[in-house]
């Protein structure tokens, strides 16, 4: 139910002239709810007025828009127009401050010093939402614009001072720091590089929390990493960059300056230790040594790297146990899983992704031992496209059911039948925290041989609807109506280590 204060705020922001007159008279405590109402209702001009007179040093998107569990209107992702309006308002505020600084006048009402825009992710943003890439570009352009305007003001001020005494320095306006998650590729590389380099000491400073780079060269990746302010960077995600072992060994030394780094994602890096190329062993030793220089690392993603028989060497130099390890499609051998079971990481794992492995009898036995070792801590397990048949899954169930804290289980893409899924549901109903299971389309719901990779194109919709309804009835009868069983990877993709 909406509060009376929110309803009043919504009515006020719907009429911009009245809202502009009221902003001078309203107490600061009402600004947050006014911001919420204007943002959520798309009142972009009023939103710019509110931000332009923001009475607090901090404006935080996570605090104002992140409590979707407590506010029915906050379930939607922030809109593109709303985000743009806030950025434009900050730029306008700083341009005014620069002008006032140069003229000696001062009528500043806005007290904003920190704009926290972290958490604006691409997941389920919809057509009206702002992608992480678009948000990064908008912020970078804003930083460059404000920096250019400052230089123009300094030039004008220098000319005025030369006409006078010429001794005093130009007064500098107080700046605004923007904390954000950044996503960059080859198209946006230039503008982000300029923003980070020119804005480092400028009025609008961009500070990164999670850094995502896609399809960049080694030199481009290094240039951006060196331009980031080290403090506060908690994640670096480099994907589809085709770096190879040599490229990773060139890039990773530049991560040592990020002393707060918790998460490192390096999927699709074109690493294959099975190649008999010269320097492969030396490259792997170098990569392991660089990982060992990241003392706070808790999450590592090496997805789609061919690491057969080399997991011990890769993880051997880590200083602390990992809480999240993603090794999808890494061609692991039983010895790799045996090492992991005996390592310091197993009892600390909260998230584990071993998708894309063929869990035949030898590998299945190693997986059972690993799950037993991780059972006290594991919250999220992905075993998608692992060729798990009904018999193999049944053999795994005792170890799986020992994971008493498990919240999410991903099994999409495995050749399981309807009876196999029912057995899985009955056996895992004892796991009190299991809230999400991403299951495959049952093999008996296909009109022909199940395709690879998995697809719903050949699924008999009527037969599958009956299976889904039966699973829902079983959940309800076992007292687990709160659990979600779905074939949707969209829902599954929104889960993140930092949300566990």
- Give the integer mean of the pLDDT values: 91
Count of alpha and pi helical runs: 18
Query: Whole-Å distance between the termini?
Result: 28 Å
Model regions low in confidence, pLDDT < 50 over at least 5 residues: none
Work out the number of β strands: 13
What does this structure look like?
The protein is globular. The mean pLDDT is 91. The chain starts with a helix and ends in a 7-residue tail after the last helix. It has 18 helices and 13 strands. The protein has a 13-stranded parallel sheet with strand order 1-2-3-4-5-6-7-8-9-10-11-12-13. The protein has helices at residues 4-13, 16-23, 31-40, 44-52, 61-65, 80-103, 132-163, 189-198, 218-227, 244-251, 280-292, 311-315, 334-342, 361-374, 390-400, 418-428, 461-477, 489-493; strands spanning 58-60, 114-116, 176-184, 204-214, 235-239, 263-265, 299-301, 324-326, 351-353, 380-382, 408-410, 436-438, 484-486. With 500 residues, it is an alpha/beta fold.
Q: Which helices and strands, and how do they pair?
A:
Layout: H1 4-13, H2 16-23, H3 31-40, H4 44-52, E1 58-60, H5 61-65, H6 80-103, E2 114-116, H7 132-163, E3 176-184, H8 189-198, E4 204-214, H9 218-227, E5 235-239, H10 244-251, E6 263-265, H11 280-292, E7 299-301, H12 311-315, E8 324-326, H13 334-342, E9 351-353, H14 361-374, E10 380-382, H15 390-400, E11 408-410, H16 418-428, E12 436-438, H17 461-477, E13 484-486, H18 489-493
Parallel strand pairs: 1-2, 2-3, 3-4, 4-5, 5-6, 6-7, 7-8, 8-9, 9-10, 10-11, 11-12, 12-13
Helix pairs in contact: 1-3, 2-4, 3-4, 4-6, 6-7, 7-8, 8-9, 9-10, 10-11, 13-14, 14-15, 15-16, 16-17
